[in-house]
Specification:
With 543 residues, the protein is α/β, with parallel strands linked by helices. It contains 23 helices and 19 strands. The chain is globular.
Length: 543
């Protein structure tokens, strides 16, 4: 009988889950897992920091719909993933971190990097456990996956003692679970659906606000529903791209006015948190229909008149199926008014974006970047003010193709997200928009991009300061500014030194040509744009 080691069992279980790449920084405690992945044909993407491995695994899930996996060594390898895991937890992204662990026979003896990892992860995962038995490793992976994809989804953690990974077992003694998690999404029951439909029929000023997006391969009929109701539609987070850039009903600049004047808000997987002013801008007279897969989110911070615990996009499909009943033949006056306001504000922003000043003004930077990446690229965003400015201009028209860190507000996600995008979609144009602060966290991952031949195009808006923090600090303690200035550093030279392509740009007219030269180089690249330092305040501090 053939024998296999624990690392092979893990790899086979991951392969049956659809995983074709894992993200790692090598270490002695996980060598059997890496060996198993090589034997099973799973790509091993090795990065320079375990935080990157966790962030990249999150992006892999978001881009493929399959389980993203980071494998890291024990002790500091595991603790380095905490920020990535927390980002996925608050962003509701399924991912699996597999940690190496000291040998069972060394338990409580002070072995190398001995630590009780699982206790560390209980508050930021949906499930955390240790796999003690080699013949049950596949079952542990299946259990982890079930938890990761349950409800809204979220990260899980599994550590595996080193000797369990090395242990050999008869292949026939291992049970590889099948059909171990549901692939269907539940919608609303008929009575609740009728209640929603009746509310929609009685409303004159409907606003759609979507935060939940479809994973690749899932049905997303949000555009169809918006066109049936002829309602102004706003999207954030994972829902971006559900309506294509330039759609007549897609809002961007007048969300607050829409919330203040709507008589019905259809909230689909939306968090009423700091990004949405805690729901406080919604009219007190409006009916709020809130649909969320996570029951505690319904009614959080803002009362829901009709609260529905269900998959938001499943409910969208149910409502779209009622088109004969809910469809509107004419565009409501309300919708015309909101979209006219959108047009006015868009034209104002366009005027600002034509500024020829040097250093470059943020709106000009944002427009040039958005026009270069266009509608089909995958764009990761990593920073504060310049990212929030640029995000309004991005033209991405595919759900999931804007990769932001979500409500945790993590810096350092840009390079890891882009690495995952280039691995998952090697034929796509992949870009990163950095703030200069954000670049400093994981900029060394350009080494990974160069080693692995991943032609990611990065652009950094470099004003030499922690911009929104300096604004806040200046407001609070103007006479004692400290730790707010970075200087306009030559980050592009670092990328060139690692074997990539880089340029420094001060003239706004040179941004687009520099990006085109970066693309033509075929190398991982960074265009370092000198931005004007301006007084701006991000949503973290201005609500």
């Amino acid at each position: 009988m053939a024998q296999i080691h624990g690392g092979q069992i893990i790899a086979r279980a991951l392969k049956s889950e659809g995983v074709d790449a894992i993200f790692t920084l090598t270490g002695g405690h996980i060598v059997p897992i890496l060996d198993g992945c090589i034997q099973e044909g799973i790509r091993v993407v090795d990065v320079r920091h375990e935080q990157t491995a966790a962030h990249a695994a999150e992006a892999y899930t978001r881009l493929t719909g399959r389980l993203g996996v980071a494998a890291v060594t024990a002790g500091p390898g595991v603790t380095d993933t905490v920020t990535g895991v927390a980002t996925a937890f608050y962003g509701n992204t399924p991912l699996l971190v597999i940690g190496g662990r000291h040998m069972i026979r060394q338990e409580l003896k002070g072995g190398l990097q001995e630590m009780d990892h699982t206790r560390l992860f209980h508050s930021i995962t949906k499930w955390a456990a240790t796999a003690w038995q080699v013949d049950r490793l596949a079952d542990y992976v299946a259990t982890a996956s079930r938890h990761a994809f349950s409800g809204r989804g979220g990260p899980v953690f599994l550590d595996i003692p080193m000797d369990v990974q090395f242990d050999m077992v008869e292949e026939t003694a291992v049970r590889f679970p099948k059909s171990y998690r549901s692939g269907t999404s539940a919608g609303a029951d008929q009575a609740t659906l009728e209640q929603i439909a009746t509310a929609i029929e009685g409303a004159e000023r409907i606003m759609i606000f979507a935060g939940a997006g479809a994973r690749p391969g899932e049905e997303n009929r949000l555009r169809e529903l918006a066109e049936l109701l002829k309602a102004p539609t706003y999207v954030n987070s994972r829902a971006r791209g559900s309506l294509p850039y330039g759609h007549d009903l897609l809002g961007n600049h007048a969300r607050s006015q829409a919330m203040a004047n709507a008589d019905l808000v259809l909230a689909l997987g939306v968090d009423w948190d700091f990004r949405t002013s805690y729901g406080e801008k919604i009219s007190t007279e409006a009916i709020v229909v809130q649909v969320d897969a996570d029951a505690p989110k319904v009614g959080w911070n803002r009362a829901a008149h009709i609260g529905v615990v269900a998959d938001p996009l499943a409910v969208v499909s149910q409502l779209a199926d009622m088109g004969e009943r809910l469809g509107r033949s004419d565009v409501p006056v309300w919708t015309k008014e909101i979209m006219e306001l959108e047009k006015e504000r868009s034209e104002s922003a366009l005027t600002d974006s034509k500024d020829d000043s040097s250093p470059v003004m943020p709106q000009r930077f944002a427009r040039e970047v958005a026009e270069f990446f266009g509608t089909d690229a995958i764009v990761a965003v990593d920073g504060g003010d310049i990212v929030s400015t640029t995000a309004r201009w991005l033209q991405v028209s595919t759900p999931g193709h804007v990769l932001d860190p979500g409500p945790f507000g993590t810096l350092g996600t840009g390079a890891p997200y882009a690495i995952a995008a280039a691995v998952a979609h090697p034929k796509k144009l992949v870009g990163v928009v950095f703030g200069d602060g954000g670049f400093g966290f994981n900029g060394m991952e350009y080494d990974t991009m160069v080693r692995l031949g991943l032609p990611v195009i990065g652009i950094v808006g470099n004003d030499g300061v922690w911009s929104n923090i300096k604004t806040f600090h200046r407001m609070a303690y103007p006479e004692r500014l400290v730790a707010t200035d970075l200087g306009v550093r030559p980050y592009h030279e670092m990328v060139k030194g690692l074997g990539g392509y880089g340029e420094f740009v001060e003239d706004p007219a040179e941004i687009r040509p520099a990006l085109e030269r970066a693309r033509a180089s075929g190398l991982p690249s960074l265009i370092n744009v000198h931005l004007a330092e301006t007084m701006r305040m991000s949503s973290n501090y201005s609500q």
